[in-house]
Amino acid sequence: MTPRVVFPNKLLPYLLVAPQLAITLIFFYWPASQALQQSLQREDPFGLKSQFVGLANFRKVLADPNYINALQVTVIFSVATAFVAMAVALLLAVQADKVVRGKGFYRTLMIWPYAVAPAIAGMLWLFLFSPSIGTFAVLMRNLGIAWDPLLNGNQAMALVVAAASWKQISYNFLFFVAGLQAIPKSLIEAAAIDGARETKRFWTIVFPLLAPTTFFLLVINTTYAFFDTFGIIHAVTGGGPGKATETLVYKVYNDGFVNLVLGDSAAQSVILMVIVIALTAVQFRYVERKVHYG
Fold it and tell me: In angstroms, rounded to a whole number, what is the distance separating the alpha carbons of residues 56 and 267?
C-alpha cells in the first residue's frame, strides 16, 4: 500500500497562494463590485452625489444607437483580429517547424513583437500608414490607391485589425510551435509513405492534433480582442472616424473618462463583462466538444 503524503506545514500553502489571492481580490473582484454598484446609480461628474436608479442605466445604454454600433464594431473587430492573428501564427509556426538550421534564431525573431506594448504597437502602425508621412501610405498612393484611414472607416478598421493581429501573432506562434513539437513525427512520416501530400497531411493529421491548442488560443484571442486592444485603438484611430472603430471597451472609456457619464459607463462595463463570460462559457460548452485531446 502506497503511504499517504502529508504536507507538514498547514499554514505555508495558504501563505504561498495569498499574494495571488490578494491580487485577484484587489484588481478584479473589488473593481467589478464597484462597477456593479455604480451601474445601479446616477452620479454627478465629480462623484460627489449619487442616486439609486436601479436598471435605468442599462435600459438607457441598450436603447442607445451608438452602443449598438459599438457592439457591431466589436463583433467585426474581434472576429477579424482573432482569425488573422491565429491563421498567420499557424502558418508561420508550420513554416518555422520546417527550418533545419537556425531554427531557434527564427523562433526568437518571431517572439519579439509580443514584448511591444499595445500603445507602442499602435503608434508603429500609425507611423507606417499615416496618410501624410507613412512609408506604406506613400507607396500605396504612388500605386494609385486612395489611402486615408483618418477619413475612411473601412480603412481605419483594417488598420487597427492589422495592428492588433500583429501584436498577438507572437503569442499564438509560441503555442502553435509547442503544439507542433508535441505531434509524433512518425505519424506524419507514415502518411507521407502512404502517398498523402503535404496539404492533406496537415488537414488530416497535424491540424486535428492541434485542436486543444487552437481552442485555448481561440478563448485567449477573443478576450484579447475585447479588452487588451484598447491601447492600439486609442493610439491609432481614437475610435474614429465617425465611431467606425469604437469598440465596447473604448466606448466605456469615452463615456466614463471623457464625457464623465459614470453610471452609463459602469453599466457598459458590466454588460461587457457578462458578454465575455457568456462567450467563454459557450466556447467551453459547445466548441470544446469537438476538441480531441490525444
Answer: 9
Cβ neighbours around 199 below 10 Å, total = 8
The larger pLDDT score, comparing residue 47 to residue 234, is at 234
pLDDT, one tens digit per residue, over 184-211 is 888 888 888 888 888 888 888 888 889 8
CATH for the 49-290 domain, from 3.30.43.10, 3.40.50.720, 3.40.30.10, 1.10.3720.10: 1.10.3720.10
Distances (CA, A) of 243 to 57, 204, 251: 21, 43, 9
Kindly provide the b/e burial profile for residues 107-133, where b requires at least 16 CB atoms within 10 angstroms of the residue's own CB.
beebeebeeeebeebbbbbbebbbbee
The answer to whether the CB of 22 falls within 8 A of the CB of 252 is no
Residue the block writes with cell 471597451 = 249
**How many CB atoms neighbour CB 148 within 10 A?**
15
**What are the distances in angstroms from CA 120 to CA 132, 138, 163, 208, 233?**
19, 21, 10, 36, 11
Write the DSSP assignment of 232-293 as a string of letters: HHHHHTTT-STTTT--HHHHHHIIIIIS--HHHHHHHHHHHHHHHHHHHHHIIIIIGGG---
Domain range annotation of the chain:
49-290
